[in-house]
Specification:
Order of helices and strands: HH
Distance between the termini: 11 Å
Radius of gyration: 17 Å
Number of strands: 0
Strand content: under 5%
């Protein structure tokens, strides 16, 4: 059970770091960024926001794939 807990802690830490870096980038690079509004920034900045969101989506998908691969190895007993 320790292995499962360690993997979950690793996943949470990696995603938290990913999310914090994303939020920091948005605050620094988009002058009108507001995470609490219906639209995260003004129309003039939406193209950049959308491009970065697509990039982050691909990064998040890779992060998830890597963790699923590691979890499968744990389940198969390849990692002790």
């Amino acid at each position: 059970m320790t292995d499962a807990r360690e993997l979950m802690e690793k996943i949470v830490a990696a995603y938290t770091r990913f999310d914090n870096e994303r939020e920091e980038w948005l605050r620094i690079n988009l002058d009108t960024y507001d995470p609490h509004s219906a639209q995260p920034c003004t129309d003039g900045e939406m193209e950049e926001y959308d491009l970065k969101s697509a990039e982050w989506g691909a990064d998040a998908e890779k992060l998830l794939s890597d963790f699923v691969r590691e979890a499968r190895l744990h389940l198969e007993g390849a990692i002790q």
